[in-house]
Amino acid sequence: MRHSVWYGAAIRGDVNKVSIGDNSSIGDRAVVHVAGIAGDYPTIIGNNVTVGPGAIIHACTLKDNCLIGASATILDGAVIESQAIVAPGSLVTAKTIVPSKALFAGSPAKVSMYIVSHEISFCKSI
Where are the strands (E) in the chain, listed by range? Predict the structure, then answer.
């Protein structure tokens, strides 16, 4: 299993588990945490996932091949489906499901558009 955790990132599995898949990258100063008191959620990060710098990934699931923008926040119980993108600075609220191939943006985030094949292949190359 190979993944990258960049400078200043914090991965805290203190009250639950954190799982990070192959070829995934956790950006500078990102925070990955779990929940075990006000809800029992691990953090599951799939394969080929990019978490941008300064992002907060809290007690959620990021499925394979998704992209989380810089300074985005994903909260407890949220699920980011495969090949979805969360725009930089966006807030995905608790228990939200981001559909596959959707660009989620805003605060709170919602579907901005659906992405097409050539855009998905671009995400795999970064």
Answer: 3-5, 10-11, 18-20, 24-26, 31-33, 43-45, 50-51, 56-58, 61-62, 67-68, 73-74, 79-80, 85-86, 91-92, 97-98, 102-106, 109-114
